[in-house]
Amino acid sequence: xxxxxxxxxxxxxxxxxxxxxxxxxxxxxxxxxxxxxxxxxxxxxxxxxxxxxxxxxxxxxxxxxxxxxxxxxxxxxxxxxxxxxxxxxxxxxxxxxxxxxxxxxxxxxxxxxxxxxxxxxxxxxxxxxxxxxxxxxxxxxxxxxxxxxxxxxxxxxxxxxxxxxxxxxxxxxxxxxxxxxxxxxxxxxxxxxxxxxxxxxxxxxxxxxxxxxxxxxxxxxxxxxxxxxxxxxxxxxxxxxxxxxxxxxxxxxxxxxxxxxxxxxxxxxxxxxxxxxxxxxxxxxxxxxxxxxxxxxxxxxxxxxxxxxxxxxxxx
Length: 316
Fold this sequence. Notes:
Blueprint: E1 7-11, E2 15-22, E3 37-41, H1 43-53, E4 59-64, H2 66-78, E5 83-87, E6 93-100, E7 106-110, H3 118-131, E8 137-141, H4 152-158, E9 164-168, H5 171-179, E10 187-191, H6 192-199, H7 206-218, E11 224-228, E12 233-238, E13 241-246, H8 258-271, H9 276-290, H10 301-307, E14 313-315
Parallel strand pairs: 1-4, 1-8, 2-6, 4-5, 8-9, 9-10, 10-11
Antiparallel strand pairs: 2-3, 6-7, 11-12, 12-13, 13-14
């Protein structure tokens, strides 16, 4: 196996992901579901799972609580993903994805996780300081647990001194990271809709997305800013450079896990010493591969390698 920089992922609000299907979604009826698929879920954990699928290594720090947490730990072990469990308050949450056979539509139900106290948060900071290895890559991804402040990602980053922090978030924590930059942030990634909500208008073209990302880099929000443009591909801005990686044309089965697969492919490539534009293309191929798999399944290595030639890189 080729040498790679250590990767640490953090998931404080994981979920036991259940995926099933019904013939038709009807109100006031007992709906007979297909046999459920169970997967460990949550942003950082999904990134670690995808990294393992791609032949890389990472250590997943996962907050687990209650019987659902025990079940989740068993599923993570089945996938041979190295992880370190930290005690979460209450019961680990569950999520449900239901696919309606009649229309092919997918419905996603996300339950809230347990509320975190300041003492719970302090335990995470302690573990991060003990686990951080200077020069490693630290991935903060997924939703935040209830009870934590909006600047929690910044506090997490401060608890990982010497790490190259990759932040993939949304909503209020994303807006906070943009308005109050995290010093030295390595990578900030967001979806196109999130970028549009920040800028206040549509980003119709790749150039508009690149202008937005470049502005954030110039303002010191992050060394690299990536904006995902869905089925089009992804734009990345870094100092003095803007590139676009095209998404492969595929039949979409489920978009669940595409963003996490992208982050896995991108980060693993960087950890292996790959140049950033080529890493962007590998991330785009991983995202394209992920949408061809069922429900909560992530990318497959053979699909990523097959689709990679389609994910062309262009300068913007």
